[in-house]
Amino acid sequence: MLTLRINGEDRRINSDPDTPLAYVLRDELGLKGTRIGCGLEQCGACAALVDGEAVLTCSTPAAVFEGREIVTVEGVSALPEGRRVQDAFVAQAAAQCGYCTAGLVVAVTALARAGAAPDREAIKQALAPHLCRCGSHPRVLAAAEEALS
Amino acid sequence: MNVTDYPLLRDWLRVGDGGLILRTGKVDLGQRISTALVRIATEELSVPPDRIAIAPVRTGDSPDEGITSGSNSIEQSGLAQRLACATARIAALALAADRLGTTPDALDLDDGRVTHRGTNRSLDMVDLVAALPEDLPVDRDAPARVLPEPLPEFEPRGLRAMVEGRYTYVHDLDRPGMLHARVLRPPMMDARLADLPQDIVAGLESAGLHLIRDGSFVAVAGPQEWPVVRAAERLSNGCRWDIGDGLETGDIFQILAAREAQRFPVIDGTPKKAPLPDPLASADFDARFERPYTMHGALAPSAALAEWRDGRLEILTHSQGLYFLRGSIADSLDMAEADIVLEHVPGSGCYGHNGADDVAFEAALIARAIPDTPILLKWSRADEHGREPLGTAMAVSVQAQVDGKGGLAALWMETRGDTHRGRPRKGANRAGPARLSANSLRDTDVPRFVPEPNMNNHAGLHRNFDPIYTVPDKRLVKALVADLPLRPSALRCLGAPANVLAIESMMDELAAQAGEDPIAYRRRHLDDPRAVAVLDALEVMLRDRPMPGEGGGRGIAYAQYKNAMTRVGLAVDLEIAETGEARLTDVILVADAGRIVDPDGLRAQLEGGVIQGASWALHERVLWGPEGRETLDWDSYPVLRFDNVPRIAVHLLDHPGAPSVGAGEASPGPTVAAIANAIHAATGLRLRRMPFDADAVVAAALQA
Ligand code: FES
Ligand code: FES
Question: Which residues are in the Aldehyde oxidase/xanthine dehydrogenase a/b hammerhead domain (chain B) (predicted)?
């Protein structure tokens, strides 16, 4: 049986190890903050932190993540940088429908944990794997600039 | 007005759990209607937002406010809520005066408490509202409360939960015993299933999965989501479809131009059954503008939860029109409407009629086949890209004559396209069932859907078709075409983006021909002082901004949504890269939405509209072949991404004495037009067919 380390805890996984991580998180573990928008690694909705980096979870089998440190958006609140990012998103009202938001919070948290202070252009490039269809982009960029400054 | 149908205070406002419960028929799509309604209640009754809840929107319980669309939420539901809360305040203050032995003018209202001035005796506003008579009618003349200063901005409802991943979408619902479901995607709407391999079916059943079939409608259901996804893929790879002659292919704009059309003159924004105006004898400007089929492209594929129990159906859905959908499902399944309950649960932003209604009906079909079991059906990304109703392809032809001073003297225009009325709702020939796509797959006798021309003011194709500018001789024709290759319905802004692109491109070219500044040229064709004020403010904001340099350009556009709602003037600055790609740098936007209720929400709506308009302008186009749509994911259907997001400066003009008007659809049209004008400023190339992607810019440069 597969064991995954998620949000600081070892979790035994019953799903078939071929199941993409996002489905395991949502369906088996009830961690529904990880959204699925495409299942094709094209939209960024399903991002989670894996060893500190933002990784898309909708296609890669869960077994690939064994031994890695997975932090979902639910776990981001427990990280000091994550909290700061979430507060910045709230302060800038950086969501409309919010479906893209969790993935973006994860991506900006990964930037915050990397420790550099990227400029606006670098932030735009880093967030390019993420789609938002409501047009919350300007607020997300403002929130990222606030959290990363 | 909505209070005509729902005249009682308790239709709009009730009390429960020590707080107010606001009732509305409008659903929150991310446009923050719930935040705006809470704000209205706080303004009128001074009850703090944490003591105000919004009742779920549910058929049989909530007011029927039709469809949440057309940027009407604030105008309609907001007005009803304001009148209801103002009625409640006046009645509650009278009651308080009675209880405190004084008169209403000796009462102060603060933080949800009514205090007898100069005493320490006070009453709770919520308790007072609870004590109002059951049959108190909403007073349509109840005056709004005048606040000494505006309330601070409200944190949008649900925002904290969104950023923490705790917000619940339909996709996240879970119930004991629930099954996940997926459907087979037909290559085109009325394809017939020719072969469903028995070995795959047997394999599914032995794996404990359910197969549901009704004619060519096929679904798989099972307890865990991923195995269901895999099973649906296997089934879809194994089955064969009969597509008859397949879809008509070719250049959609040639198809559109060649089709027989129902044509109507448009007078003051309204199509008439009357003789058509003559074309102009000669023209100083003659051009055609084209927009391809465009997706809504919600970030989350559509989903719904349905449960069939004792002959009754419950559906949790992100549809924008619960009552209409209920009627259409009842008609499809030959059920009484009273036996169907629909409740709204958020989906992702939808921007019009996407797959929400179809998927709700399909979930119902599956639930009916597997009774007493909650069914959560999700479309796949390819389902959404391949099946959602689209914004129609459009072509707008323009001929203009100018006077001796270069001003607009005469104008002939034709706007041409398929219908925007694809939503399931009652109508002749079982229009409701005909517009639920599963009915074209099932074995039913639902007739084919034939759209009726929309003859309302600034509706459908002719939204923003009648120029807001003064033109002495205007000859406008709406041309509605049917049976184009793909399925059309309502997409945010309807015909406005194509029409505004045509009008604003023309204004730009005529200004240049006349040797005039584009803002000044527009202004001299406007007699609405608020329009002029918007352009004046835009001019002031642009004054301090250097013009983009070599390889860059600035484009201007102005439009008032439906010629009656929010006025938007904006400028787009961009640069054209070596590849031909337009890189957006800055958008400067001025808007007048009347009285401002939720300023930050208003800004967010306008910014979001700019982004969506930019995405339409630069990227979006549905492609198809004889065997169906070919743009089935985000690679083949690219959209604007973060790397090309401009800085957006929004300036709002507040008109406290004017009614609040919606702004959700005000900015995309002018954004599209301003981008076209900016590309022209940067390159000298006039692009008239959307999208203006790198290929289009390069192709135009080669032709020039
Ligand atoms: S759901 Fe994973 S990238 Fe879209
Ligand atoms: S806020 Fe709706 S998709 Fe980003």
Answer: 164-245
Q: Say whether pTM exceeds 0.80.
A: yes
Statement to judge: residues A95 and A61 lie in one domain:
no
CATH assignment at residue A6: 3.10.20.30
The strand pair at B261-267 and B303-309 is best described as: unpaired
pLDDT given at position B450: 82
Gap between the Cα atoms of B108 and B104, Å rounded: 9
Cβ separation B160–A136 shorter than 8 A: no
Q: Identify the pLDDT of residue B73.
A: 65
Taking only Cα atoms into account, the Rg of chain B, rounded to an integer number of angstroms, comes to: 27
Does residue A118 share a domain with residue A68? no
Asked whether the predicted pLDDT for residue B498 surpasses 80, the reply is yes
A97 and A123 belong to one structural domain = yes
Listed residues A25, A50, A75: the one ending a domain: A75
Spatial CB neighbours of A121, under 8 Å, sequence gap ≥ 6: none
Which structural domain range is residue A129 located in?
76-148
Report pLDDT for B128: 97
Tell me which residues have their CB closer than 6 angstroms to ligand 2. Answer: A 95-100, 132-134, 136; B 30, 299, 348-349
A16, A133, A141 member nearest B349 (Cβ): A133
Residue A106 beta carbon below 6 angstroms from any ligand 1 atom: no
- The domains of chain B, with CATH numbers, are 2-145 (3.30.365.10), 176-244+296-387 (3.30.365.10), 394-419+454-703 (3.30.365.10)
Name the minimum distance, in Å, from the CA of B45 to any CA of chain A. 25
Instruction: Please report where in the chains the tokens 């929130």 appear, as a residue.
Output: A143
pLDDT at site B72: 64
Residue at which a domain ends, from A43, A75, A107: A75
**Is the separation of the CB atoms in B375 and B178 below 8 Å?**
yes
- At B30 the pLDDT is 65
- Asked whether residue A59 falls in the same domain as residue A112, the answer is no
* Residue A46 CB less than 6 A away from ligand 1: yes
pLDDT in tens, B245-256: 999 999 999 999
- HEC string of B273-323 equals CCCCCCCCCCCCEEEEEEECCECCCCCCCCEEEEEEECCEEEEEECCCCHH
**C-alpha distances out from residue A10 to A4, A106, B155, B433, Å:** 6, 20, 36, 50
Please state the rounded mean pLDDT for residues B606-612: 97
Burial label, B647 (beta-carbon count in 10 A; 0-12, 13-18, 19+): middle
Of B32, B172, B380, the CB nearest to A39: B380
A111 and A131 share one domain:
yes
pLDDT band at B61; cut points 50, 70, 90: confident
Q: In this predicted model, what pLDDT tens digit does every residue of A69-112 receive, in sequence order?
A: 999 999 999 999 999 999 999 999 999 999 999 999 999 999 99
| DSSP H or E stretch at residue A84 | helix A80-91
The enclosing domain of A144 has a CATH number of 1.10.150.120
**From the CA of A140, how far away is ligand 2's center (Å)?**
10
How many domains in chain A? 2
Share the mean pLDDT of chain A.
97
Q: Could you read off the pLDDT of B349-385 as tens digits, one per residue?
A: 999 999 999 999 999 999 999 999 999 999 999 999 9
In the DSSP assignment, the letter for residue A28 is I
Domain co-membership, A67 together with A30: yes
Give dist(CA B340, CA B319) in Å, integer: 15
The answer on A110 and A51 residing in a single domain is: no
- CA of A67 to nearest chain B CA: how many angstroms apart? 23
Whether B640 and B615 have beta carbons less than 8 Å apart is answered as yes
The structure tokens listed for B382 are: 């390819």
